[in-house]
Design brief:
131 residues, 4 helices, alpha+beta, 34% helix
Length: 131
Amino acid sequence: MLLKYRSDYQKIAMGLMSLLPSFKDWDRLQRELAWYQGGDDRTLFLWKDQYDDFAGVLGTERQSNYVIVRLVGLMPDKQSTANVWQMLDQLATMVPQQRIMGTLATSHIIAKWEFHHGQNHLDRPTTDSGQ
């Protein structure tokens, strides 16, 4: 289950984010967390697994017709394609009218997820540049 970040989840969020290579630096991690809190178009989600344990983090940025997945991270023992796809499935359910896209770092994950769901670049709306 995806839950929107709240301040009482700060330690959990920081712990999950610190598992990602780009957030090993404490100051960088704090700036990223503050960035997600700094605008209505940005959302940090925490993901609970089937045992109701916090096991992942998903960072998004909303645009007019799409949502950009900026970061995806899972606990080491929960790292599986199935868990990532569960997170993305739940995000897609939350934003049914918007297309889910990735950054340079996450686009390969989104492409695999789309392919798994039978979507491809030909199914994209004509307003999408395909990039």
